[in-house]
Amino acid sequence: MLLLGASGAGKSTLLHGMAGLLGGADEGDTRGELLIDGVPAAGLRGRAGLLLQDPDAQIVLARVGDDVAFGPENLGIPRAEIWPLVVEALDAVGLELSLDHSTSQLSGGQKQRLALAGILAMRPGLVLLDEPTANLDPDGVREVVAAVERMLSRTGATLVVVEHRVSTWLPIISRVVVLEAGGGVLADGDPDTVLTARADALSEAGVWVPGRLPQFAPLAPSRPYEVLRGTDLSVGRGATVIQSGLELTLPRGAALCVTGPNGAGKSTLALSLGGLTSPLRGAVEVSRDLAVRGERRPSRWRSRDLITRIGSVFQDPEHQFVAPTVRAELAVGPTAMGVAPADVDARIEPLLDSLRLRGVERANPFTLSGGEKRRLSVATAIASAPSILVLDEPTFGQDARTWAELVILLQDLQRSGTAFVAVTHDQDFVDAVATHRLELALDRAGVGS
Amino acid sequence: MSARLASGADALALGARPGPRINPVAKLGAAVLITGPLILTIDWVSATVALVLVAALLPFAGIGWRQFWLRTLPVWFAAPLAGVSVLLYGRTSGTVYAEWLLVRISDGSIELAVATVLRVLAIGVPAVVLFISIDPTDLADGLAQRLRLPARFVLGALAGFRLVGLFLEDWRSLELARRARGIADRGRLRRFASMAFSLLVLSIRRGSKLAVGMEARAFGGPAPRTWARRSPFGRREIALLIIGAIISSTALTVAILTGNWSFIGAR
Fold first, then answer.
1. CA–CA dist A80, B200 (Å, integer)
2. How confident is the model over A37-96, as pLDDT tens digits?
3. What is the pLDDT of residue B76?
4. Using CB atoms within 10 A of its CB, is residue A420 exposed (0-12), middle (13-18) or buried (19+)?
5. Prediction ipTM score
6. Topology of A2-204 in CATH?
7. B170 and B95, same structural domain?
8. B182–A80: do the CB atoms touch at under 8 Å?
9. CB contact under 8 A, A57 and B213
């Protein structure tokens, strides 16, 4: 069963409730009954297993086998019965690793499959998935979906999954339930009927309805004037070179999309292009009109000079938040670059409206929803009107509505001459915006076009 | 798939997978037995005796020389440093050889300095040697199954321990993020404080997510918990504890018999 609804409709809360994880009366109000096999779900451990979005939040122990054994141990299953369960669960998710393999050396997809194995080892009758693929690259998504399919055919468990990207799960779903934002069920039925009958409402709520995807096309490459250039770049972690000999140019108003598998050095390249770190070798340079007192290498600039020229948006918005309210957060950049207090408001007012942050302007950035956090992190970067934007996975985990808003916003910026570089796994996003593409391979450097 | 099932059958035949070679709880206990009594006295005799005995047993500890020197390196630096400061500022007695402001090198401070160097080594070396081979998971198993510490506490600490590595990454991201926000030029101290606060917020959020993840795996439920891994405690472990006790009691006995025993509070 696929569970859909606008953000704030209570999908995750319902899932947590089914897993018996809702807190007591001090954490909120509860009305009605939630029964699993005729027994209240709260306090019922092991009957329902929940897979969460963040792979790192679910791995408890250092070795693969021990981690899968954690659930059965907690259920009090005798030692002799635990290890066969562990082996069976790892096999059901197709994870062919030694029991002693370190859990910290797994890819995102492997971590999610390990977490799924950890749930299966408890032999649940109900498996709950809360956007389990939102933080994964395309390979990871395929791995996890295949593992879930395999697991269902073996165990016959019931599946409930919450996911914005409907097409990911459509092949293995037999029922769709749509929750209404104010409470109650909006629709309930087989996938074809519900997705056809409720297509408009679902699209409005941010669900990726197949065949109703927002249509965009990249802007025509216009002025060949070059604002950023990377020459013979080497990037890597510590002193280890991951990519070398990279050549790239970014014309004004262009959209360069950098793709490639995990570990190919995309994020590290973004840090260097954003002037946050120096490349291991080679140079990142801006055009002469963007130079600071003749210095064309962004990594040498002071940070307040940097933000008026190159804005960076991190993969995890939470890392970037430094102020207690959304409004104050937006004011940080303009204040740092020396805009007079009276003029700061003039800069942030339009951003509050265009990025739909007006309703939460007094809220703490950490309390926002995923989509709001993403919009805020982009807004903070463009508040200081940089000529270049560097974005790391801007569409990760975003619903269809925020996704479309981001594309519209970025293309508006392009029209006004801002160029951007986006590191991304999202092929739809690349197809929608890319005027230039760079694909990084794992072993050797790719060649930009 | 067949390979998996075969290893499953093996696991079943063994009843469980092989545990650690020596129970970490015994290593912990031996370290306490060796170093505990040595903390009580500051004479050079007991430290020397203990150090000689430990050195004699080193070849049987099962660690290579390279690893031994690498891991104990901090101890070899710390010991002379502690010695030098005691030499310069230690309690004065007997002939004074040199004097400059607060610095006073005398018979007493020389003797104390030698005793300090030996003591840091006698406490540091065996502790490092015993601890380097401890696996945190095995230690947690031992603490919970052998010492009967509450599982909630032990496993919570073990799971939290895994998050430490993520702190370092978070800290670097926070640093870069401040540069990206235009506030990395001034106020180093204030920036440090704000980053520390952000790290705290991030850690708490990570911790509470992990807690939900553990609860989703039935952690903290009403049923008594079982342990998938054994934590054997047999002859080897008892032998290790006895060796530890022999080392410290020999050291103390020699010190007392030669009249060098000096209780740390007595000076």
1. 41
2. 777 776 666 778 888 877 777 888 889 999 999 999 999 899 989 999 999 899 888 888
3. 92
4. buried
5. 0.81
6. Rossmann fold (3.40.50)
7. no
8. no
9. yes
